[in-house]
Specification:
Elements lengths: L26 H11 L1 H28 L2 H17 L3 H10 L7 H17 L9 H7 L6
Helix pairs in contact: 1-2, 1-6, 2-3, 2-5, 3-4, 4-5
Length: 144
């Protein structure tokens, strides 16, 4: 998976829940999803998530700049759902906070930092379908 240039550098990430890192990505979420839809499907979802994330964050920023609370809620809900499916819980929590219609710029700035850290965490070899957490849990679905 290629990590977008905008997400390189910056603070270190963590893939352990409850850590002090910017990203809080739980690989077991992707493992459970792979049990249902297969490893290849989850890998594709992760790759698309990373590729689309800069545009999704920009959509949130544009809604904020325009003062469009309904658009902000829609964009935040969409990103929250995708992030949750892949185990990006901190990113999802920030999106959920934005769904309340907070039109201050601070949550979006934090979200940009967490989104970049999440991309780096999702690129880790131990995070996602190719990592041991998925291949151990996925069993027969790994060949789907």
């Amino acid at each position: 998976m290629t990590v977008p240039a905008w997400s390189s550098g910056g603070p270190s990430t963590s893939i352990l829940p409850g850590s002090s890192g910017l990203a809080d990505v739980t690989p077991s979420s992707a493992a459970r999803l792979a049990d249902d839809v297969g490893v290849e499907a989850v890998a594709g979802m992760r790759d698309r998530f990373v590729a689309l994330l800069p545009g999704r964050v920009a959509r949130l920023g544009a809604a904020l700049a325009a003062g469009e609370a309904p658009e902000l809620r829609d964009a935040a809900l969409s990103l929250s759902c995708s992030a949750t499916m892949l185990g990006a819980h901190r990113l999802a929590a920030l999106c959920d906070a934005l769904r309340g219609g907070d039109l201050s710029a601070e949550p979006v700035r934090e979200l940009e930092d967490v989104a970049a850290a999440t991309c780096r965490a999702l690129a880790e070899p131990t995070c996602g379908p190719r990592g041991p957490a998925v291949t151990q849990r996925a069993g027969p679905s790994a060949s789907r």
